[in-house]
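User: I'll paste a sequence; please echo it back and then give the predicted structure.

Assistant: Echoing your sequence first, then the prediction.
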Amino acid sequence: MNRFLIFFAVFGTVLLTGYLYIAMRISQSFQISGIPKFALFTFLGILAVLTPASYGLSFYEVDPAKEKTLVLIAFSSFGFFTIAVSLFAGFDILSWILSKTPFLENTFSGTKELHQDYQISRKEMFDQFFRTSALVLSAGLAGYGLKKLSDGPKIYNVKIPIADLPDSLKGFRIVQISDVHIGPTLKKDFAKEITEKVNSLSPDMIAITGDLVDGSVERLRNEVIPFADLNSKYGTFFCTGNHEYFSGALSWIHFLKSIGIKVLMNSNEIISHNGYNIMVAGIPDPVGGGAHPDHRIHMQKTCRTDRDCTVRILLAHQPKQVVHAVESGFHLQLSGHTHGGQYFPGTPLIYLVQKYVKGLHKVEDTWLYVNRGTGYWGPPFRTVDQEITVIELI
């Protein structure tokens, strides 16, 4: 709990700093002063505090409708202002660079008379243009993110060639979902929609690669119940993501098992398909070891079997866990976690922490597929597709 409170304190402080930076830039650009300026700073300060506070509500008993409204307001503003902070800061840096560029010195020096009683420096005029552009672009990107989210998950069909794959295994069909994030804003209706779409794809097996939930079993069990109806030839397999450990992983593991989902925790299950064995294994998210000692990644235990397997598939929430798949000789790893960046500025920044962000990659002799995320976390924006993946072995 102490670590959780420290996280919220740091998160809130960073947000408050960013929101007040935007308030300062808006007041400068539009010459806002006095009571309107005070009101602007107060309003944005409240929004900054509202975001971590609304997320914290997921751990308490609150009216679901009121919670959803509050969280949507808080995280929509959070999404808009993360876009705005990045663009305002980017334009401020660009303005500074241009003003220091020798051959542009005359462009940024001097003043321009806009009215007989009002003159403005050329640099201030450029700054106002940049800041206004940042505000307009932020609104445009936020609007596009909302629109794209309303389109719902897109089906991605991916064929993965496995060396020396017997004909009897060609066409084996895996449907993967990841990062669904059932919680404060995504509810039972979304879980039902995803379940119906997945079932319509006639999978041989279903893989859920972590971050299924945001909140406790006590609060979300009824929202997650539709996943009990996931239907495939060999069942639904699950590995934990980092958000399970923020939401009570042990309780969720017990609950998911109770509704027929096979939780792979440093373990595997062998599927016999047309006379050949397929190993489906799973490891916990890297944060699991800090939460529970027996949730540390243990590849020797994960791979343990006395049966010959023609294909070996690993479910691992984070793409960077592919090092374990490569070292242990897996043919394919299925991951999520990145959301493909979800929305700007996350789309470029995600590459600072994850080498593999979306789609299919070959890492030595192992294929890695990174799902872009079926739901969303935080701001209800997506400039990257939501994804349900249909993987066919060839």
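Residues 166 and 310 are 8 Å apart (CA to CA). The two ends are 48 Å apart (CA to CA).
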